[in-house]
Amino acid sequence: MSIDALKGKLPDYAKDLKLNLSGVFNTPNLTPQQAWGTAVASALASRQPEVIRAIVADAGQHLEPAALNGAKAAAAIMGMNNIYYRFVHLSATKDYAQMPARLRMNVIGNPGVDKIDFELWSLAVSAVNGCGMCIESHEHEVVKKGVSKEAVQDVIRIASVIHAVSAVIDGENALA
Q1: pLDDT tens per residue, range 112-169
Q2: pTM value?
Q3: Which residues fall within 8 angstroms of residue 148, CB to CB, at 6 or more apart?
Q4: How many Å separate Cα 117 from the centre of its chain?
Q5: Which of 24, 80, 96, 170 matches a 20 to 30 Å C-alpha distance to 6?
Q6: Rg (CA), the chain
Q7: CB 69 within 8 A of CB 88
Q8: Catalytic site residues?
């Protein structure tokens, strides 16, 4: 399945999503690797099989194997970290913030791709998963390394469109 086929599955009430899915990748603020890696990581975080297959299929035209693997790694590690750090952030017991996580996170130190790209993908997944602590950390890191706020916004736009498309496809599948 391709993104065009995916757009064809969206119902009329989701016309804005079709339009956004067509245009969200056209940005001068992100490299193709950054945009398509964001899409892959966001699709994986959104957990919708048809969306994952369509995004990964089309991303293959824009990503080298190492970048595809890096986007998958960002979704994997942030799937764990977002739960852990969201708990730490939201818990009324502040002692947890002083305790070591004791979770392996080696891929963050050596993601196999440009660190900024990996941070952007981690930011996208953190937005999908709703971890404020991780959003703040990754956004701070990329801006500190010179990424524009417009590029950060584009990453979040991609993540939000992919997530919304996933929700609509899941809803339509449930109603079928």
Answers
A1: 999 999 999 999 999 999 999 999 999 999 999 999 999 999 999 999 999 999 999 9
A2: 0.96
A3: 29
A4: 11
A5: 80
A6: 16
A7: no
A8: 131, 134
